[in-house]
């Protein structure tokens, strides 16, 4: 399956309020088609373009209006990813603390612990979805930048991806720790050999986290 179709399918299956937060892959492809294909430049021309991009600030030198529009949309997408990702992380920190407090207060109330465990399982699944969100958008950026370089003869992909690697949405260390803390809480609440049968079904609702990495 092509990446664009796979991305569309995953967006359809994700949380409704997340759907407009993913990479605008279709729009980027439309803008890419507006760019006039260029003949492959010689090695020296490619080297000069690469040096301009590496220097920063002059990456749009020599670009057409269509190329500038394409890069502007890419930068807007990064801002969108970062704003959403940081907002979700901050919310997850608060939600985890609230769940920890509830667990502490409900230690001797089995029914309440079962309800809380169900919430933790759902919460864990949502955080894993956010990990997948990060990986999926990164994959989409790599693919569309590869197409851009091929069409224009430029060398935008490497410097742009180096920039992406420093963005909040790609920095998932904190999110990973939150996921692991959820798993630790679940293990402490109901060790595997003591898990009540009434909550087994809850574990099955975790969403799929497979990343789309097929070629376009």
From TrEMBL:
This is SPX domain-containing protein 2. The keyword Lipoprotein does not apply. One of its GO terms (biological process) is cellular response to phosphate starvation. InterPro entries: SPX_dom, SPX_prot. It is found in: Nucleus. One of its GO terms (cellular component) is nucleus. Residues 1-162 form the SPX domain. Keywords: Coiled coil, Nucleus. The keyword Electron transport does not apply. Pfam families: SPX. Its main location: nucleus. It comes from Sesamum latifolium. PANTHER family: SPX DOMAIN-CONTAINING PROTEIN 2 (PTHR45978:SF5), SPX DOMAIN-CONTAINING PROTEIN 3 (PTHR45978). Residues 207-216 have a biased composition (Polar residues). CDD domains: SPX_AtSPX1_like. Residues 36-61, 197-216 are annotated as: Disordered. It comes from the Eukaryota. Residues 71-116 form a coiled coil.
């Amino acid at each position: 399956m092509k990446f664009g179709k796979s991305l569309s399918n995953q967006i359809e299956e994700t949380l409704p309020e997340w759907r407009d937060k993913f990479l605008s892959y279709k729009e980027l492809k439309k803008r890419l088609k507006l760019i006039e294909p260029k003949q492959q430049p010689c090695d020296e021309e490619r080297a000069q373009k690469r040096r301009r991009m590496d220097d920063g600030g002059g990456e749009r030198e020599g670009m057409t209006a269509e190329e500038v529009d394409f890069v502007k949309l890419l930068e807007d997408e990064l801002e969108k990813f970062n704003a959403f990702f940081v907002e979700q992380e901050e919310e997850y920190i608060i939600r985890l603390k609230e769940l920890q407090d509830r667990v502490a207060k409900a230690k001797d109330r089995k029914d309440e612990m079962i309800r809380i465990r169900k919430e933790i399982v759902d919460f864990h699944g949502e955080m894993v979805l956010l990990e997948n969100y990060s990986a999926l958008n990164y994959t989409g950026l790599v693919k569309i930048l590869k197409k851009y370089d091929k069409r224009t003869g430029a060398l935008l992909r490497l410097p742009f991806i180096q920039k992406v690697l420093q963005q909040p949405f790609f920095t998932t260390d904190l999110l990973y720790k939150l996921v692991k803390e959820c798993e630790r809480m679940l293990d402490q609440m109901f060790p595997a050999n003591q898990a009540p049968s009434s909550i087994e079904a809850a574990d099955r609702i975790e969403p799929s986290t497979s990343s789309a990495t097929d070629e376009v």
